[in-house]
Amino acid sequence: xxxxxxxxxxxxxxEVMSEEDTLDNILTIWLENKPTAxxxxxxxxxxxxxxxxxDNDKEYYVTFFKDGEPIACVNNYFETISVxxxxxxNGELFIYLYMVYDKGKGSHNKDVDGKIFLRQIELYDEDAxxxxxxxxxxxxxxxxxxxxxxxxxxxxxxxxxxxxxxxxNLSHNWLRKPQNYxxxxxxxxxxxxxxxxxxxxx
Length: 202
Hints:
- The structure is a single chain.
- This protein is α+β, with helices and mostly antiparallel strands.
- The chain has one domain.
- The protein contains 4 helices and 12 strands; from the N terminus they run βββαααβββββββββα.
- The chain has helices at residues 19-30, 37-42, 46-55, 190-193; strands at residues 3-5, 9-10, 15-16, 60-66, 69-76, 80-89, 92-102, 115-126, 130-138, 143-152, 158-167, 174-176.
């Protein structure tokens, strides 16, 4: 059972922000301090804003908690839905997986209704000696582009970069759209959403 907070994860501070600060960010950054009269009616309460934003293709955040700890932060924006998966690492809240879905109409989905498309994956792994980032981008032509960045911390710092492309079947990348402003739990089942060959996931 999850509990919800309509708040943003701040990767710089390594914490989930308050709902009030999240709304302030939406107002100042995304609305550029120029909310419409209708926007202003809903900016007084974070959950009210989320309902309104979902129905009107505006940005909002919702973080899901399990047993009191944040496990995922969802950002629903105009053309995308991103899911940031969180865990604690050395006492800090750490992103270990990031997934981005397209919901806007484009050349790849012009004939697909009621679906979102898994466009991007980022997987992070870190220990005392190195940090590894795998970035996967799915192109419309069925090409999966994988970039692997390895940052070695000791005995001396160095960086290694690899890139490869593979032809894949993208039919598995289509999922249904969320039905309401909190309907995201089905996106947390990444082990079944992602094909085994995409990435080596825990």
